[in-house]
Amino acid sequence: MRLRVLHTNDIHSHFEQMPRIASVLRRLRAEAGEERTLTLDIGDHVDRMRPETEGTDGRTNIAVLNASGYEAVTLGNNEGLSYTEDVLSELYGRQASFATVICNLPATATGALPPWAVPYHIVCKAGVRIGLIGVTACFPEFYNLLGWDVREPFDVVPPLVRQLRPQVDVLIVMSHLGLRNDERMAAEVPGIDLILGGHTHHLLEEPLRIGGTLVCATGKFGQYVGVIDLEWDPAERKLVRAEASVQAVAIEPEDEEIRSLIGEYGLRAAAELDREVARLPVELRYDWYGESPLGNLLAGGLRRWMGTEIGLVNAGQLLGGLPQGPVSAGMLLQLCPSPINPCRMKLTGAQLLRALEESLLPEFMDKPLYGYGFRGKVLGTLCVDGLIVEYDPEGADYAKIRAVRVGGQPLEAERQYLVGSIDMFTFRVGFTSLGEGTEPEFFLPEFLRDVLLRELRDETSLQNSFSRRWCTLGESRHTL
Description:
Elements: E1 2-8, H1 18-32, E2 37-41, H2 51-54, H3 59-67, E3 72-73, H4 77-80, H5 85-95, E4 99-100, E5 120-125, E6 128-136, H6 140-143, H7 153-164, E7 170-176, H8 179-188, E8 194-197, E9 208-210, E10 213-216, E11 224-233, E12 238-248, H9 256-273, E13 276-280, H10 293-306, E14 310-314, E15 325-328, H11 329-335, E16 342-348, H12 349-358, H13 362-365, E17 382-385, E18 387-391, E19 401-406, E20 409-410, E21 416-422, E22 438-442, H14 448-456, H15 459-464, E23 470-472
Parallel strand pairs: 1-2, 2-3, 3-4, 6-7, 7-8, 8-10, 14-21, 18-23
Antiparallel strand pairs: 1-11, 5-6, 9-10, 11-12, 13-15, 14-17, 16-21, 16-22, 18-19, 19-20
């Protein structure tokens, strides 16, 4: 008896791929037979940088998953950390027609999974019982702020495997944990037939075979669909063969139903994002490689949002400027799409000085970044608030800055300063010393564009954003 498992992961709201993905899924289901095929998604289908997602609170994604015939999904960090419990309840409790399987995300208040989720799910295909366990990456410092008591996967999955194994013929772990954790799980947890992975965007064109477990993944952005063909011996009641591959979707014709569905939801999203959220008396320019009013406004907003002495953010978070006149929600999304959260931390004067020096160097400003929530192109220079920097642009590297004043006082190398910045720096990407900050406090569910919106509505903040923070030697502190 032949069975087929189809899987995707880390599509990140690449809606341009979804009609072709649906076409591949339907063709492959037709080949094997609907009653012998199981279709799964392993998380991060959602990404709030896309207007179709942002303008519908994720409903477009759920509608596509429903219409494409997915039978079960697990959550990635882009679902779990981008939305509040109320939104997740609407999406997965009322909108979804598939099972949401996630074993390690109980609510802090109850200690139980939410009503819309199950720790495991058993599906019967042609008389074969297939057990599914879903698990997501463990980020307690973030999840706790949203009311989730996320659990360590290796504390939760092994006992579930032992519990479920006698009840099923085939056992699959839907793992949004990353490749290294999948390899570890295959090696350490007996009884798993398939691990379908995601999170680290790894593509396994050939599966990994670790012990008796097949480890599979389809990369990122909907470029591939995973296909696993299983042979089941009903007399012996065991798997006798498992073969896995991936199929590229680029040359597949589009499924017209899915394309039309995305178009309909896209119109709804566009109408929502077209609403006016602020009105500007002046144009706000941006600059990845120098000081700008919009960069200053965002840095100042972070300082005020978290009540700190200093505000710091990389200019590459901004992908555009804002004209004089009305500002829409869609314009804000376009210029600040990254799902990055505010973060308060402590940094010494020496650490701050090093980051400021790095921000003047082309190798940092031009550094491309990938992941960690960043949806821009390059790091850019540092936008600052709460301090004044005097520097010599012709000075030697790491010796360009001649003076820094915080609140009118000279920067002290050993003193710790309270800094309002972004969570991305705590992952030790970008400016090296900012990853050394201590006592980080994260602010969720707000994104940078939420901080920016508050500042756009504040007349005093707008006026102050034109005051220089970076001054060359001998230059008076005039406006931008």
